[in-house]
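I am going through a labmate's work and have reached the protein record below. What it holds is a sequence and that sequence's fold in token form. Please read both lines and tell me whether the tokens look consistent with the sequence. Do not assume that whoever made the record got everything right. Thanks in advance; the entry in question is below.
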Amino acid sequence: MKHVFLIFSFFLAAVTGFSQEFQVSGTVTDGNTPLEGVLVKVEGISLYTLTSATGEYSLSLEEGIHNLIFSFGNKKRIRIDLSEDMVLNVDMSDAEEVLDEVFLSAVRVSANSPITYSNLSNEEIEDRNLGQDIPSLMQYMPGVVTTSDAGAGIGYSSIRVRGTEARGINVTINGIPYNDAESQGTFWVNLGDFASSVENLQLQRGVGTSTNGAGAFGASINLLTDRYSYEPSAEIANSFGSYNTRKHTVKFSTGLFDDHWEFNGRASVIKSDGYIDRASTDLKSYFFQGSYVGETTLVKALTFGGSEVTYQAWDGIDADQLEENRRFNPAGAYEDDEGNLKFYDNHVDDYKQDHFQLLWNERYGSGWSSNIALHYTYGRGFYESYRAGEDLVEYNLQPFTANGEEITESDLITKKWLVNDFYGTTFNVQYTNENVEVIAGGAWNNYEGDHFGEVIFTRFAPSLPLHRYYDNKGQKSDFNIFGKVTYAVTNDLALYGDLQLRRIHYEVDGFEEENVPFIVDDTHTFFNPKAGLTYEFSEASRLYFSFARAHREPNRTDYEAGDPEPEELNDYELGWRLTSSILQLNSNLYYMDYRNQLVLTGELNDVGAPIRRNSGNSYRLGLELDAVVRLHSKFSWRPNIAISRNKNDEWFASWDGELRSFGKTDISYSPGIIAGNILEYRPIAGLEIKFLTKYIGEQYMSNLENEASLLEDYFINDFNLQYTWRKAPLFKEVVFTGLINNILSEEYVSNGYYYTYDYEGITYDGAGYYPQATRNFLVGMTLRF
């Protein structure tokens, strides 16, 4: 607690010393044309705004000298000395191009595109970046549901968008695939504190635009890492909070030197005991980048990654445990010789992952440019588990005789290993003029994964050296090519076309547990067309419509569970965007029509991975609204809501020993209402106060609509405060941040699983739950040099 009192003492001292405040405002144009959506940022501090449809902006700043950055795919810096209200009009026609953004031009979209999307800037990320994973930082975006195994947003965290789980969400970093090739999942725990190295993030809902890696079946997330910096800088950030949580980060940038070179980096440590008992997390991570900036060239070489050790918390708890002790964790439980309940200390997930990327952009004049990237990822690690009363034969161990009795079972400790390599290239060529933008490109990626299990200890059986009880290897190659065209038919109407051809080959050879052969040799070729239009009624109002078809191959767990079919999705999006000086409104209707959708059954395998199976025909129909309302120069309101109907046309399942039709049922893990809200108040320069709310409607954890699988709705509230001390002695600025999560201490469950079993011809069912933290806090202080 002494850290908390120290930080808030500094905070109170800083607030009492604020100085006089003035307003700078004006219009941003490209020649004579007003520019909407230009980012206007005060250099070195977390203060920014966006221009309206008429190009207007305003900022309230303390008296003194400031550097304003105007960014719109290009960048302009203007130094001002503010001693009274100032009008500053800016023409971006001669601004310097920001080359970093071109690395995402093949996968990103803008307000002129017929794609449903939301952006999250690094300024918004910094407001709450106190150690929680990226899903927790995204939870107030439209249509998003997040959950955490440890309960407090640190460790194993995941995200759903429009009811689609993480395996249906395509994630790229600088345009390079991040999803695990075999499982298709996104393991944010391997990227501890990665948010501190993210420049911005775009969430595309629905199929979105063609991208690289796993098919987008509900959404795609595109992350851009830190830009190069013109000025040298350094910062030290420390935060502390509930459940013994702490984060320590060091960042630096050399600034651009010799007019061409810049190096920057970050090192971080995050530790937490977790809300759930023993759900501890120990994350160490790094990010280093070197950039060469030429007149028409940008080359970036970067490496990032780290290690994680998390105590397993994916077993969940049953309804009785939820009522008696919602923080109980059954993982690692066993009985000692006296029959006392014990927990194995090293029942952990231990994994390391290192990423290497080389990015090269070149501009050739006359509207031509190109991008090429090479990448390599090396991952290795294991689950270590205590397994009580296991059948020796299932581990290729022989029964033995003790005191004249045959012993066939023993407690064991196992390690389930994964060692993998992922490498490849992405590439594209672009041409742009006044009426047309053309992008053609593709990617080739290859994955090689070695899966094996070892018995490292037996409690009752004779001692043994390391014993490998299963071994198989997976290999997956993924090749795609695409072409995209945006054509301005008139000043008001633009047409969009996007064609992608993707070919995947997946092989597995070897044995699973219990000496079961696991052999896969499957090839899929998918054609994914997309088309749309955008019509501009006025500078403030745009209508768009799009159709997209997507296919997705089954993942490793799907093959383990049966003989799955690939999925097909037809996605229809109709949207309207309105922008004015006081209101930005995005609204859209969507209809997602699935064939053979692989939906969650609610069950888990032995390492906590969800089991899915094809559902035949199903659909998602919904309405999404999100807005930014500027109620006052110091007060804004950012509400969003998603209302949806998510149905299997007809669901079949085995019940009481026979295959039954359950008719039209809700798709699992698909709440009908998801709503978010952010109220932001800036009473003085440098001080931001936010009140955040999230409502998730009830949802079923199975496709049977059984009451045992129902997750109740919940409503949570967070409070976020940040103060930037811009004239702190010895530092460029000092930033104090406070976050109170779930301020009303709601006892809610955001995730779980459902299972059935048959006994004497009768089907019984049950459920497991992942409780989330009640009221908890995080506070932090950042020193910038």
